[in-house]
Each structure stands twice: as structure tokens, then as C-alpha cells.
Amino acid sequence: MRSTPRRILPIASGPPPRSTARSLRPRRPCAETDIYAPPQIIEKVRAAIKRTGNEVEIYPGTHHGFAFPKRPVYDRDAAERHWERLLALYRRNLS
Predict the structure, then answer these.
(1) pLDDT tens column, 35-76
(2) 36 FRET partner, CA 20 to 30 A, in 21, 30, 71, 73?
(3) For the chain, first and last CA: distance in Å?
(4) Structural domain includes residue 43
(5) Among residues 55, 77, 56, 66, which one has the least CA distance to residue 31?
């Protein structure tokens, strides 16, 4: 039996389509220090996401990769907050 695939929003891929973004209420998590996403890029993403009624969330004192325990920049408090919010997003939209 073939099931209908569910639409999943990748949390770190930039702003989603407006209709999807409003229904999912995603946050774009960002490390405070990130060589892959400098502040000027974050501001562009913030402006694009704001038009959908969503937000960029900066995790103070963190570096790119902060949510993964085996990385040297792991930040337990920020990671727990990030995973709680991500899992809540999935529960709201995939249950």
C-alpha cells in the first residue's frame, strides 16, 4: 500500500513558501557566530521570513553546529532549546 508523502519543511533551508510558513510557524535557528551565515545574510533571511509572519532565532554565545553533541562547539542549553522547538514543530504539523 502506498501512503501519501507528508510535506516536511527543512528548518535550515531558508524561508519557506508563504502559505506553508504561516501554517507551520517555523523558526530559523542561527548560531550567534557562524562563518557560513554572516550577519548580513542573517538579516536578509530575517527580512524574508518576517514577511511570512515567522522569525529568525539567534542562540547567544553559540557557533555553527552547536546542536550536535560530538562537535567541539556543542552548547547543551542551546541545543536542548533548539531540539525542543524543532520537535514541537514536527508534533504540530506531522501528527
Answers:
(1) 888 889 889 988 888 888 788 888 999 999 999 999 999 999
(2) 21
(3) 20
(4) yes
(5) 66
Task: Give residue 41's domain range.
Answer: 19-60+77-94
Q: Is residue 89 part of a domain?
A: yes
Residue 1 counted as domain residue: no
Closest alpha carbon to 67 in 57, 59, 75: 75
Which residues have CB under 8 Å from 37's CB, separation 6+? 30, 31, 45, 64
Is residue 72, in this structure, part of any structural domain at all? no
> Predicted confidence band at 14 (pLDDT cuts at 50, 70, 90)?
very low
Task: Report the domain count for the chain.
Answer: 1
Compute the average pLDDT of residues 14-38. Answer: 66
CA angle 67, 26, 30 (to 5 degrees): 40
pLDDT of residue 69: 93
